[in-house]
Amino acid sequence: MILARHRLVGVTFTLTMLLYVDRIAISAGKTAVAQQFSLTDTQFGWVLSIFALGYALFQIPAGAFVDRFGPRLALTIIVGAWSFFTGMTGLAWSFASLLAFRLLFGLSEAGAFPACARVFYAWLPAGERGLAQGINLSGSRLGAAFALPLVAWLLLTIGWRFAFFILAVAGIVWAVGWHLWFRNSPEEHRAVSPDERAYIAANRGAIEKTAEPLPLSRLLALPNLWLLMGQYFASNFTFFFCLTWLFPYLQRAYHLDPLATGFYSAAPLLGGAVGNWLGGALVDRLYRHGLGHRSRQIPAMIGFSLSVVSILASMLCSTPLSAVLCLTLAMLGSDMTVSASWAFSIDIGRGHSGAVSGAMNMAGNLGSFLTSLAFPYLQLLTGSTTSFFVVGAGLNAIAVFLWSRARPPAGNADTKLQVGEVS
User: How is residue 269 annotated by DSSP?
Assistant: First the structure.
């Protein structure tokens, strides 16, 4: 029998798949879009990065919106809005309009992952949140991986504009289905049995019903939050390269056709999905063995270390297969850290987990913003891609150190941290 909370994780998995299918479509369509508007690589870098900038800057407000109004209404609005601007991307008529629609698309998507964090806070026992986050976030990697060859095929079949229209309709259908099915707590949902409801209540901790927004000064006073923000910046720097520039990089470096490039580019994203599952399972296993905050810390440090080694190894590769294998391991390692990050943000935020995870995700997507620009500009300045990969490896090494400093507040044996407490 599939329990209601497990069905919920499956639904959020489809959400993150859809989110990243919509997000990566512009990368797979790079050649067609760039030709349509006569864009240089640096201009297309702005098309990619303007999304990440809007997405990053709206994370904290969007997270606070989720905390205030609940994930049922919030996600309905969020998914509906981003689907609308996905469709509008297909109507772009100039470089400026394309930038505007991608910025608004990024702003609209901003609350999706903070909303999922708030959902898991209310619906899941603490010992199940790591794997649930891993499954949920693996949807983003699988969605992106499947989108690369799928969107490449759609582009060849119906053109890039109609591909965006189809994606917009899919998102609106999801938003309507979510509003009809979901409730903000398991106590309000008819599909949750009394036994499951009691089990969730006994193992998730007391639920804080947030009435007022968390003041920004109090939010930013958390040392643990700054550590989370710094390491998430590093992981997104690695991930966003695979999401955006890997496709055109492989196509140009190894003279591949679009369909072959799509399959090669999907491999690191599949590795990321495995990393999310592996990291999430390890987080929960260590937590159930009483390791508290180290159940978050250990998987993250292992993952970032693997990513450092793999990125450096990719610089020595001379074939697309060997380069992709190294980058797949780098993504696997980088994404081993993601479940730990989101689980720890829920630990810290609790009733304000939307705002706390939004702050972390804001920093991560500033990393995404810089990745989109760093790749073409560093290549332009140095004449090669080596400097970009060195920077990526260096950021992951710094993230290992940051996780080594993550601690729960003094006097707490586990990771059930309170907002406003410091280590």
Answer: H
DSSP 8-state code for residue 188 = G
Q: State the average pLDDT over residues 328-347.
A: 88
Q: Are 338 and 236 in contact, with CB atoms under 8 Å apart?
A: no
Please identify which residue in the block is written with the tokens 């080596």: 386
Residue 206 scores a pLDDT above 90: no
User: What is the band of 410 on the pLDDT scale with cuts at 50, 70, 90?
Assistant: very low
- Rounded Cα gap, residues 113 and 74, in angstroms: 11
Cα–Cα distance, 370 to 219 (Å, whole number): 24
Q: Among all chains, which residue has been given the structure tokens 């500033």?
A: 366
Amino acid sitting at position 155: L
Domains of the chain listed by start with CATH number: 4-404 (1.20.1250.20)
Burial of residue 45 (CB within 10 Å: 0-12, 13-18, 19+) is: buried
Phi, psi of 251, rounded to the nearest 5 degrees: -60, -40
Q: 408 in helix, strand or coil? A: coil
pTM value?
Answer: 0.71
pLDDT attached to residue 309: 95
3-state secondary structure of 159: coil
pLDDT at 136: 82
Question: Percent helix, strand, coil in the chain (nearest 5)?
Answer: 80, 0, 20
Nearest of 91, 22, 87 to residue 51 by alpha carbon: 22
CA 131 to chain centre: 15
**Alpha-carbon gap, residue 405 to 401, rounded angstroms:** 7
pLDDT per residue over 3-31, tens digit each? 888 899 889 988 988 887 887 778 777 77
Q: 114-131: buried (b, 16+ CB within 10 Å) or exposed (e) per residue? A: bbbbbbbbbbbbbebbbb
Amino acid 400 reads V
74-90 pLDDT tens trace:
999 999 999 999 999 98
